Amino acid sequence: MKRRTLLAGAAAAPVAAAPIVKVLAAEPVKITWWHAMSGALGDQVARITKQFNAAHKDIVLTSVFKGSYPDTLNASIAAWRAGKAPNVTQVFDVGTGTMLAAGPAVKQIWQLAKETGADIKPATYIPAVRGYYSLPDGRLASMPFNSSTAVMWYNKDAFKMAGLDPEKPPQTWPEVLQAARVLKAKWADPLNAQTKATTKGTAASAAKPNAASKGGLIRYAVTTSWLTWIQFEEFSAIHNIPFASEDDGFKGLGAVLQCNSPAHVAQLQRFMDMEKEGTFKYGGRDSAPDPMFYTGVVAIGFGSSAGRGDIVRNAKFDFGEALMPWDPAVSKEPHNTFIGGASLWAMTSPHRTAAEYKAAAAFFQFLALPEQDAMWAQNSGYVPVTLAGDALSRKQGYYEKNPGTDVPIKSLLRSPVTPYTRGMRLGRLPEIRNILYEECELAFAGKQTAKQALDKTVTRGNVVLRSFQKSVGG
Amino acid sequence: MERRTIFAGWKLPMLLVAPQLVLTFVFFYWPALVAAYESLTRTDAFGIHVTFVGLANFRSLFADPLYRAAILRTVGFCAAVTALALGLGMVLAVAADRELRGRDLYRVLMIWPYAVAPAVSAVLWILLLNPQIGFVGRFLVTHGIRWDYALNGNQAMLMVVLASAWKQVSYNFIFVLAGLQSIPKAVIEAARMDGARGWYRFRTVVLPLLSPTLFFLIVVDLVYAAFDTFGTIWAMTEGGPAQATQTLVVKVYNDGVVNLDLGSSSAQSVVLMVGVVALTALQFRFLGRRSGA
Amino acid sequence: MATLVIEKLSKNFGPIEVLRDIDLELASGEMLVIVGASGCGKSTLLRLVAGLEEPTRGRIILDGRDVTPLDPSVRDIAMVFQNYALYPHMSVFDNMAYGLRIRGLAKPEIQRRVQEAATLLGLEPLLARKPRQLSGGQRQRVAMGRAIVREPKLFLFDEPLSNLDAKLRVSMRAEIRRLQRRLGVTSLYVTHDQVEAMTLGDRLLVMHRGVPVQLATPMEVFDRPADAYVAGFIGTPAMNLLDATLTAGGTAARLAGGALLPFADGRRPGEEGKNIIVGIRPEHVRIEAGGMPLAIDLVEPLGSETVLLGRLADETMLSVKVHGAWAGGERTEIVIPSASLHVFEGKSGLRLDPAR
């Protein structure tokens, strides 16, 4: 609005044009950044904004919190349709497919770099990170920002009590199953008096049994957050098998789901069997099961590496962070996991000036500075997205001082990235995840077999993929 | 009707009703028209590729067994919430209608749940019913009941019905209480003298006299259950497990906001809109008939 | 048909005593009218008998059975309410049949009884209507019908005519009396209207401030009111009540203005100068030359009779009822006949009969 009035003013006074243009040139470029980071993460966004503005006197960056990830994405879409899109917006991993299909609404990073001449090299970024946000030929589409990956959290106190080595977490699924049975027998059994004595954290609640639950907490060996992302999408990457055709959708909109392979069926069956024998407890979708780990309900909790902050704050026991297990029956060795989280997209808008795009590019470059990346990662709990940022953290001794914090990076760098370990490039992925959740929930509830659940997921998911393909004119 | 205008021209009256008209247009007609238009198209989220597809969205909607299941589920959910909210509201109102000690405090407490935000009430219910951390949930589990709303669809449904009904009990309570108090005391006494006792008296005298209030409440409760329970359901189960608690509004939100399937979501909104119009028409007809008699 | 005995019945609402120690006995088929100004406790007494209120003390015995602890629904008493209290959602027929259905009567029997009552009350053409489609008088009849069909042991009437216009009230009054006589049901009838009380009751119970003042036949209440309150309450226009003192020997009353009124029926006990009240009904005051002068303020012609409102020499108000129209002027002279005098104690207001 302001810009328009200024331009109108300039047009209306051609005689005095020269001095006005000079004033305009001195005016700093204003850009906005919409994000979904609340709480402590929001404070970090504010810090970044402040430091960027301090470093760039000719740019004024304003960051605006727009609510949850879906809220932010929807706000950005609505704003673009109204011609008022922000310069930069934060879009969660599963929104990547939608953004890639957004055509004129966004300026992909490679495009932005070309137009503004900014030096943004994909090689700066950790391969497993940039892979998620790249086109198949390696050109960067969006700017990696907050990235996490799947890890296995475990309760060291519980391991000790069950007679397991707390420094040797299970590495393969058969080992997980074995440990789970031991944990159930020696730790989760509410009748086991030992339970109350040794576990630091849960001891408090167990020592004073609540009148409502005579045995204190009801314990299970294992749970998982993000069942669909971690146990199916990441599972596929770890075993280097496709979740969907067309290299998990990277090669084209025509991808069909392939998550009903025998390996996937065996994976779901594994959880169903564990559920039946009482070693696994399904705790809901997405991050809903997180509290089950840090409150001591389970001894092993699969989750996002970004959950570290909550665990540190809440867990009253010794915990460990370990690489995801793999199934030797499917793959001889484990592959890298890919990232979750969100990236930053440059958006277009009518009347957007070259200076504004330039400012956005400058902002992206600023985020990639090793010290910025390392600071963001250390303060937020996300992984560094640049190789230099990771190296800096290592040099600063951060990983040594905070054991386990390098596990996510190790997981991302576990093997060279293959076509099946880059991540998911599927339209309307949130919907597909919900379908997978729904079908798994029905299977856990005993209403269908593992094979039926995944077959139905594929059928229903493909309908969504075709609908998306049609909607974007593919 | 008989009052004729006292305005000289049409400018002033237009000016006076304009704000209302503008609000109605901006917040009702415009979105409704956009939804109606979008329900006939297939479009990506950004509106870059828009294809007119006629009634294809509706056809695929009604061909989808999951949508038909959602309709049935919503009907059941609405019926359950209405029955529970109205039933409880009535029981409590009948109790409050008696002369009992601390009646005023009791009434104030009754009205509280209505003032609680849906998300907050959802959290309260989860804190109560969560099988791992909830007071009631743990009690159930330790007493041999397989309470697990993350997997058991019936239990999840039960939970959202409870939470939704709880929020609406207050509203029903207030109206039923007012309705009870508007029944002449002498009529009840006449029934007592006639030999009618307890439930029989309630059924044959109180209930019929309360029926206009009850009908009004049934319509309000149905509309509440169909639309206003979104916040509660979303915060508690997000429509899961599987689709066990996915009512039509939850599905509209899911398909529109989460899945960005605007065509289908708009078509669903149009279906819902038709539903509300039908309910409202029914209410108008009923109320019209009553006042006309 | 049953007897009703009320023993020491009292009722408090919180700290307020609205009824104290009522004792009453009704013979089978008797109609007793409870009369008094509003707030005297007459309605409360009726509601206690009905069972709609619980007594604080005392017993109610209907037909030899103590019904005090019983719910109204099982007392077998029917009540006609002031505002009729018909069931608005039921037809006239259903209103009347309601109580019978509860008692589990067979359909033909219900049909017969309702039909009979409807014929009796002239309600046949209205049986299918809803109460809101009826006039006030018709609603009143339905309320009566509802009580009649039950064939209860006891009828209770709570000011049933007070919502009707004057003309309808007179005809309904007669109808109620006729019906009650014909059905022979023991009845309690509450009213604040003394004409209704006089015309309807076999006996009257006059109540004042929660206490029964007089229980007697209408004529006895009229002829020998138990106290100055009853004397003033029963009869229209109201009895003149004049402040006076007792003369020496108790043979006469001396009015405030000095006039002497000798007692025709004997001496009253008490010392000279004792405060008394003398009562004389307006129709008993005679216009007679040579009597006490009366200044007439107001003339109220009632057709066959005329009521004069005037003042004695000492400004004491006095009303006089004369036959026919009043042809006299603004002044006249009156005589108070000794034989028609009522004498009451000044302090308590109680009737003062001649000493024996």
Q: What does this 3D model show about the protein?
A:
The complex is a heterotrimer of chains A (474), B (293) and C (356). Chain A has 2 domains: 204 residues, 3-Layer(aba) Sandwich (D-Maltodextrin-Binding Protein, domain 2), CATH 3.40.190; 242 residues, D-Maltodextrin-Binding Protein, domain 2. Chain A has 474 residues and is an alpha/beta fold. Chain A is built from 23 helices and 10 strands. In chain A, helix 3 links the parallel strand 1 and strand 2. The N terminus of chain A is likely disordered. Chain B has a single domain, classed as MetI-like fold (Orthogonal Bundle), CATH 1.10.3720. Chain B has a two-stranded antiparallel ribbon. The two termini of chain B are 20 Å apart. The longest helix of chain C has 18 residues. In chain C, strands 6-7-8-3-9-10 form a 6-stranded mixed beta sheet, sandwiched between helices. Chain C has a 5-stranded antiparallel beta sheet with strand order 13-12-11-14-19. In chain C, strand 12 and strand 13 form a beta hairpin. The chains are: A alpha/beta (474), B mainly alpha (293), C alpha+beta (356).
Notable characteristics:
heterotrimer, A: D-Maltodextrin-Binding Protein, domain 2, globular, disordered N terminus, B: 293 residues, mainly alpha, MetI-like fold, two-stranded antiparallel ribbon, 12 helices
Quick description:
The complex is a heterotrimer of chains A (474), B (293) and C (356). With 293 residues, chain B is mainly α. Chain B has helices spanning 11-38, 56-63, 65-97, 103-115, 118-129, 135-142, 153-181, 185-193, 198-228, 230-236, 248-258, 262-292, and strands at 41-43, 50-52.
Topology summary:
The complex is a heterotrimer of chains A (474), B (293) and C (356).
Chain A: H1 2-12, H2 17-26, E1 29-35, H3 39-55, E2 59-65, H4 69-81, E3 88-92, H5 96-100, E4 106-107, H6 109-116, H7 127-132, E5 143-148, E6 150-155, H8 156-161, H9 173-188, H10 194-198, H11 200-207, E7 220-224, H12 227-238, H13 245-248, H14 262-277, H15 290-294, E8 298-304, H16 308-314, E9 319-322, E10 340-347, H17 354-367, H18 370-380, H19 387-395, H20 398-401, H21 407-412, H22 429-444, H23 450-471
Parallel strand pairs in A: 1-2, 1-3, 7-8
Antiparallel strand pairs in A: 3-10, 4-10, 5-10, 6-8, 6-9
Chain B: H1 11-38, E1 41-43, E2 50-52, H2 56-63, H3 65-97, H4 103-115, H5 118-129, H6 135-142, H7 153-181, H8 185-193, H9 198-228, H10 230-236, H11 248-258, H12 262-292
Antiparallel strand pairs in B: 1-2
Helix pairs in contact in B: 1-12, 3-7, 3-9, 4-7, 5-7, 5-10, 7-9, 9-12, 11-12
Chain C: E1 4-13, E2 16-26, E3 31-35, H1 42-50, E4 57-62, E5 65-66, E6 77-80, H2 92-102, H3 107-121, H4 136-149, E7 154-158, H5 166-183, E8 186-191, H6 194-200, E9 203-208, E10 211-216, H7 218-223, H8 228-233, E11 240-246, E12 252-255, E13 260-262, E14 275-280, E15 286-301, E16 305-311, E17 317-323, E18 331-335, E19 342-345
Parallel strand pairs in C: 3-8, 3-9, 6-7, 7-8
Antiparallel strand pairs in C: 1-2, 1-4, 4-5, 9-10, 11-12, 11-14, 12-13, 14-19, 15-16, 15-18, 16-17
Helix pairs in contact in C: 2-3, 2-4, 3-4
